[in-house]
Task: structure prediction
Amino acid sequence: MNKTVIVSNRLPLQIQIENNILKTKPSVGGLATGMKSVHEDGNGLWIGWSGLTEEELNEDLSNKVKNAVSKQKCATVPLTQYDVNNFYFGFSNKTLWPLFHYFMEYTEFENSQWESYKTVNQKFADVVLENINDGDTVWVHDYQLLLLPKLIRDKKPNVTIGFFLHIPFPSYEIFRTFPWREELLNGMLGSDLLGFHTYDYERHFLSSIKRILRLDVKFNDIQYHDRIVKVDSFPMGIDYDKFHDAALKHASLKKEEKSELQRRLDDHIQAGSNAKLILSIDRMDYTKGIPNRIKAFEYFLNKYPEFKEKVRLVMLAVPSRSDVPQYQKLKRETDELVGRINGQFATVSWTPIWYFYRSMPFDNLIDLYVSSHVAMITPIRDGMNLVAKEYIATRTNQDGVLILSEMAGASKEMNEALLINPNNFEEIADTLKHALEMPFDEQQSRIKILQKRLQRYSVEKWAKEFMKSLNATKNIDAVIVAKKMNEENQDTMFSAFKKAKKRLLLLDYDGTLVGFKNNPLDAKPDTNLIATLDKLNNQEQTDVVIISGRDRETFEKWFANKNYNLITDHGVWLKSKANDWNMLERLKTDWMENITPILETFVDRTPGTFIEKKKYSLAWHYRKADPELAQIRTIELNTVLTSLISNNDLSVLKGNKVIEIKSSSVNKGRAASRWLAQKNYDFIFAIGDDWTDEYMFEELPETAFTVKVGFKKTQAKYYVKGTEIVRDLLSKFTN
Ligand code: ADQ
Result:
């Protein structure tokens, strides 16, 4: 039975050892809840670090931990103190976390920490690989494990891998500063499906993929070697019922059943007719905008002094990553700010800020959520932010107002909240006033809509949707009609080749025999290629034809003393062996002087593009241009050209990063048919990489072995990955 393996930095368990006795407790976090159904399903497994370093565990304890977690369907990845310092506190939290949250000034690029990040990702891969078989599904979580998908894929290509990033993916301009950017992106692309919280993060990621790796992206599909990688957004939800039900239960508590915290909160609310609580909850992290929030509150008290002694900010900050210097600095700054403002505004009966620096049990969290009239969640940058959603879920009377930073991923789906820019104190102060004075009807109408959405798109639904999309990637191959040219297909082909009496090999040049160069004139045949072509060409009863869109002059130069069969200009010129060049199609070229100026305007407006003037066609190359601008320009150019070419018997061909305009009456298909008519071939092989080769595939008989280079939609029967495999295949024809 196939299984699903979840991988995250930490296991969803808390392990405690006291006097050599080991206790495990399930974590209550949102992720653990969301993944519950995935984890419990069949023989599911969760892989992660236990939270105890190798140094803290002797052999006996280590075995005990292994046994205890395995009962919870978990497996541990052993990490040393060095790993935790360098991989976790180091690279994950001093490099990736600040960079991905746009805190460039906090970002360290330390080679030794990067090495540790790679080593630990490999440690995770080792445990995953021990536990999976072909056909299994792996779901990897978050920024600590960005390299893991590739490490798994390289060893086990036949598993389905999903990856979800819980933090933002930054814009290309930020991401490009990262020294190991290619390696990181390739690591992620080991996945079949990549998930982000919002469309913006998805967009940023795809932009980096296009610009840094220069890969082709169609909508949300990335063409990656011989695979398609899907990218999509899945906004994570919460366990809505858990929070809602807890709030309902809370409402029915008798006075004596209430917590100490709740009684104190009640005291404040009952102190005056307009007494209100403003809630703020986060991990103590510089991305959460805690100092800004306090300063904005100060600004509010100064601007609207009528709220003094009436409102109180209840601020809960959970200790987090306190080994990292920036977090220590933030803690000091927060302490100082709270002290200063309380000192400045406090009266005998009122302190403006109640500040808790600790983790709180779930019941107390509920006390805070249900007692607060306003929740003020104002991160500087946040992947999603679940606190905002939890607050809404607990508002069982449908009162309360959420003030939410537009920099939180959650703001994309919580339009009914009051959205603010966390750096604009004026706006925050005015919004806070608006929130405190909002009539109940308006509160209710906003909360109702928010609750409806959160209830529907719960964390469980989120996990299900992701798994559904991940499973759907298993059928992605069916979209591409061609089959992979594997060993078995090759055997069939080569045995047909051996038996045949008259063989024909039709070979496209660019993108097939040689890779693409920025300047087309740099794609000269190298000595290895010439040696292979010589061998092929000298075989008895074998006609080799290089069939290309290149112009005759270039091939004349490159293959000057070779007696190859050459077809150039998409089929205008033919040279068979030692004979002279022969014109297959008579073509007019007067259209070129009208089209050239149009192409020139596109060159002027699209840096990195240029025109290649061939004898019978014009090509506009955009390989070096900004991929997104080029995409817009190709659509524009296509529209312009379509209206011009119809009466001129011209056609527009979209090649590999090139648009070519040429006469409609010539194409590789016609040229190939003419060649075929000369002899009765009993073996035909044709290979090519782009659109222009599709004409050739179309014209060839059903028995031909047609091969597409690259993983694209095609009429060919087979596909291969790239030029290296093509060369390997060709050399096999000569053995
Ligand atoms: P976090 O940065 O941790 O998560 P968030 O999404 O707000 O941020 O989750 C915090 C969780 O901790 C909430 O479920 C909250 O109830 C709980 N919590 C907060 N204070 C607590 C306290 N004092 N005691 C106990 N529990 C407390 C990262 C990303 C986010 C993203 C999540 C999920 O940074 O942007 O939303 O992952 O993908």
Q: What stands out?
A: Residues 240-456 form a domain with the Rossmann fold fold (CATH 3.40.50.2000). The pocket of adenosine-5'-diphosphate-glucose is lined by residues 30, 166-167, 236, 281, 283, 316, 318, 359-360, 365, 382-387, 390 (CB under 6 Å).
